[in-house]
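Case study 2.
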Amino acid sequence: MKRISSLLSVLIILGVIYWSFSDLKPTLSLEKKLEKSNYSLNNALFHLKNISKKTHFVGSDEHQKVQNYIVDELQKMGFETEIQTQTAINEKWVAATTTQNIIAKLKGAENGKALMLLTHYDSSPHSSLGASDAGSGVVTILEGIRAFLEINKTPKNDIIILMSDAEELGLLGAKAFVNEHSWAKDVGLVLNFEARGSGGPSYMLMETNSKNSKLLTEFMAAKPNFPAANSLMYSIYKKLPNDTDLTVFRENANINGFNFAFIGDHFDYHTAQDSFERLDKETLLHQADYLTTTLQYFANSDLNDLDSNEDYVYVNFPIIKLLTYPFSWITPMVIFAFILFLILIFFGISLNKISVKGILKGFIPFIFSIILCGGISFGLWKLLLIIHPSYNDILHGFTYNGYTYITAFVFLNLYILLKVYSYFSKIVKPADLLIAPIFIWLIINVLISIYLKGSGFFIIPVLIALLILAITIFMNLEKRAKRILFTILSIPTIYIFAPMIKMFPVGLGLKNLFISGIIIALVFGLLVLTFHNKKATWMLKLTAILTIFCFGKATFNSGFSVDNKKPNSIVYIQNSDNSAYFATYDTVLDDYTKQIFDENAVKGGIPNAETKSKYKSRFNYHKKTNNRGLVSSKINIEMDTLIGDKRFVELIIEPNRNINKYEFLSTKKIDLHQFKVNEVLASKGKKYQVKNGTFLTYYMSSLDKDITLSFSVDKNEEIAFILNEISFDLLSNPNFNLKPRSKEMMSMPFVTNDAIIISKKIVL
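Prediction:
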């Protein structure tokens, strides 16, 4: 009977885990609900197939075709569209280009603040097809606004549609709109649709300079069917350097908004595999559900004042979808929990249900298990990177077998926990084992109440554990009944934290598996009475078998295939001293890269040739080659004059071949004053601080024939910089004859790739 109760408890836990994940994301059956709002998933997929046939980064031919397609579809609905053409500069990203935003407006019945529907239509340079990021956002808005128009009811608020350009290059389209367009001042709320993968639930993240209570209340009033959100993500997001178009609206115009973004299947992010076929249709439905519910609500709500003076804790919770309460409750709840904890310890000792010696012994397995789970998870992943060095070439850190690894590490951590606690199950009373976890969780909650209030829902598992402790102390229930009862009471704890165990390594990379290990150990401590069984060897054997099976499966699937392509890279660098090199970012050379990098290849990089990249990647190999004699851009000095103690310089750079981007690097610090790019002032006229490294990357759009830089410096300042001109035509340029990639390979994302780089030093 004990085994049956243990088995039943495990089945309940597995059922709750499944429930917690299924509540975050719709199934295809939701499509029928969407049809009631006139939304057609098939229409959205039709658009997506058309705009994600080829990569469409800024400056590519396909970029213009996608722009034309979107404009045509909006005009078919009766919109007057505008292409806002504007050079934009993002000083934080040291990036600039000439953007072409697609803008339209549906006029409302009143004159309040407008609702904006926002996404971007450019794909990441240079190989991403952009189906998820952010083709999914484009088609969600196109089909959502079509369905909204079919209702034939004039909204209260204006609805502005912005399909921004050059988001992938530095949020440049959003910068152009917020800083230069007259409609920016009319926007009261932004709904932004984004992606950082090709599947999984879409999470809601707010952007606000104030507090979140009004935004959260209004979001829930819109009644989304699958709200996936928690205030821990909100608090972390506010502390990190944010990087969506919506950030520009908040930082530059103090406009509130919601990001709706999915991060599942992160291995497809910014790659050639971000395709129509690989986008999860249920994820697209989730985006559609957010749009249809929030559009209907906010199109007719008062958007004039959504600022708040109070923050709320919120988290996904069984049945009620989102549990919310004010930050001001956090400290009283922690104090209440501490007082209740002390009272229960007093009665527990008085009634001989716990002992001081047993409590102290109970700290040993809990602390030891946290250290083991976190430490082994961290160290084992480092070991796996040594065993499988090709994983290092997946720069964002989430491998194709990443989900299998997450499952393997979960079972490994459970095995560790069961093994550690099995040594103490015979010498410590069950209630003694619960004291240490509650105490450590209370300490964590004290820290949360001071430093990270968005994690305020961490007190909920503590309150549940205190209830379990009270039952253990005051009630003499049969062991079988207690185990099942304690499992049922722990349902909210499991429901809240199970998705987080998956979310951290998926969104932030498998190097963060140790965070999941620590969470598992912490939660297990509160569930210890559910698992407490002196003879539960079957659990140990089962977790051991499942651990071995999952690691074996991950190892078996550690290679690459047509469906899971290996990223690789080759670039050609030509210097002004007539030297020339091939270089690669690859850790593991393959048939494609070995055509260049043989035993004569040199390990390491080439100074100043490694262009700016998201993960600060460096070349791993380079090899000297013949200089192909490619013609570099012409640099015309239009002005170089002294006025007082300032030197004023203006230069024009004209390409002599098809250039995709220019990167300007400095080898020393220098302050540029009145720095302009194509006559657009950077840093609002304040000094533009140039540090060692890249100080500007200019991406050539289809409208750019040249670029103009102008600035002033101190008259005694030496002006010297390195100009790298980059084209993505290495594989098509007739001066080269590289063997193409096999079907099991793709261009490595996040770095300058398949490129010709001409590097030269300019001294003025």
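Residues 411 and 545 are 9 Å apart (CA to CA).
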